[in-house]
Design brief:
Layout lengths: L2 H5 L7 E7 L7 E8 L5 E9 L7 H21 L4 H4 L13 E2 L5 E6 L4 E2 L7 H17 L18 H14 L9 H8 L7 H7 L6 E3 L8 E4 L5 E4 L6 E3 L1 H12 L17 H15 L5 H5 L1 H21 L12 H33 L1
Antiparallel strand pairs: 1-2, 2-3, 3-5, 4-5, 6-8, 7-10, 8-9
The chain binds adenosine-5'-diphosphate (ADP), 2-acetamido-2-deoxy-1-O-phosphono-alpha-D-glucopyranose (GN1) and magnesium ion.
Length: about 375
């Protein structure tokens, strides 16, 4: 199905005048749909094709999105906010569903476009990073009483780092794209850290970390910042909202936003952890969570940053080994570049672990 054909299946207002590829996500095929209304004004929508090769239970996935957005809308309304801008709004299909399904299985869904707000691919101002942190912390806070057990696990073992490690070792073993011999250093980097992989999942298993409703994909470009107020406006990309660990939500944001280089930087001398940005994010996230994090959760935030970076690097490397079948790539070797960049950041985080711990302890003591 073409995106134009998919458009006809949604209750968009007015006449569709364009439908173009949009955004820099690595997973969904995202389009910006522009419509002209009868009164001469314009209205825009986000249309997405979601791949069932990645999200294997589309009904479960869209059920999560529908229920989480309805719950957030209610909370935002109660708090005097604007649910049309502060949470995602699904557009109904012509047959009043939340999505349509192609014969080959992929699904299409549409959201209201959030106008006058920006998604950043890198931190341009520390204040934006603080606001993104506050928004992700607040997201978790607002969902604190949501029935976690009712959520579908949209990607099984998404942040189960030991399982990701096992998958990585299987990919090395299978070597389906014939690339393992050329990346011996990167493979060794992961193997040397086998013991680390179990730290967060071990604490969860032992009942020392609580399972919460978390976002699980807290990259800077998954939150919108209001152009007028500069405030964190809306958390987007809700496909991986499911039970998880607060430290992983914290950690993935640090991996992406507190890196002094881009996620796919090839000049590794530019890659490092900015402790200033780490501190900025920690302040915003703790403020957004509003005192809800336990002592153990607070203590493990720096480890969450390291393990999310290690896990993500390992996922990029696994995809490289499997022939680039999961993440969207834009050049040959793109996943390998991304993996190398993550590993350089892990090395720097290992050096800076005591400083990260000190920063968290100081902020926690002040709040
Ligand atoms: P992916 O899973 O591929 O990352 P996202 O849901 O994050 O897909 O969407 C990709 C990009 O599309 C986002 O980074 C953002 O720039 C843009 N986007 C998504 N939803 C909206 C929305 N409701 N309003 C404005 N922009 C959006
Ligand atoms: C993907 O969908 P997007 O681009 O926001 C991925 C994340 C990775 C991230 C790395 C569903 O996020 O887990 O951390 O790429 N999302 C999924 O940039 O796998
Ligand atoms: Mg995204």
């Amino acid at each position: 199905m073409t995106p134009q054909e998919a458009c006809e299946q949604f209750r968009f207002e007015g006449t569709i005048i364009s439908c173009d590829r949009y955004g820099h996500g690595h997973i969904n095929d995202t389009y910006l749909v522009t419509c002209d209304k009868a009164d001469g004004s314009r209205i825009r929508y986000i249309l997405q094709r979601v791949h069932v090769s990645i999200f294997k239970d589309p009904d479960g996935l869209m059920g999560n999105v529908q229920r989480v957005t309805a719950y957030l809308a209610e909370k935002i309304r109660e708090g005097g906010g604007d649910p049309m801008r502060e949470t995602m709004n699904l557009i109904p299909t012509v047959s009043d569903g939340h999505f349509i399904r192609e014969t080959d299985g992929d699904i299409w869904r549409a959201y209201a476009f959030i106008e006058n707000a920006t998604c950043f691919d890198r931190v341009e101002k520390a204040a934006d990073f603080y606001q993104s942190a506050y928004a992700f912390g607040r997201f978790q806070y607002l969902l604190a009483d949501f029935d976690a057990a009712s959520l579908t696990e949209t990607i099984k073992d998404f942040h189960n780092t030991p399982v990701r490690f096992a998958n990585f070792k299987a990919a090395v073993e299978a070597d389906s794209a014939g690339r393992a011999a050329s990346i011996a250093d990167e493979i060794a980097f992961c193997m040397e850290r086998e013991a680390d992989m179990h730290i967060m999942t071990g604490l969860l298993k032992d009942g020392k970390l609580p399972l919460r409703v978390t976002h699980n994909d807290t990259k800077l470009n998954n939150v919108m910042i209001d152009d007028a107020t500069g405030k964190g406006l809306c958390v987007i990309d809700l496909d991986t909202v499911m039970p998880g660990l607060a430290g992983n939500d914290f950690g993935d944001s640090i991996r992406f936003g507190a890196n002094t280089a881009a996620e796919d930087e090839t000049d590794l001398s530019k890659v490092s952890l900015s402790l200033d940005l780490f501190e900025t994010y920690a302040k915003g996230f703790l403020a957004g969570c509003d005192g809800r994090l336990t002592e153990t959760e607070l203590k493990t935030l720096p480890m969450g940053a390291k393990l999310m970076t290690l896990e993500c690097g390992m996922r990029f490397l696994t995809d490289h080994l499997e022939g680039d079948v999961y993440f969207k790539t834009h050049r040959p070797g793109h996943n390998l570049d991304r993996a190398r960049c993550q590993f350089a950041l892990v090395r720097d985080m290992e050096q800076k672990m005591p400083e990260m711990e000190r920063i968290i302890a100081t902020i926690a003591a002040d709040t």
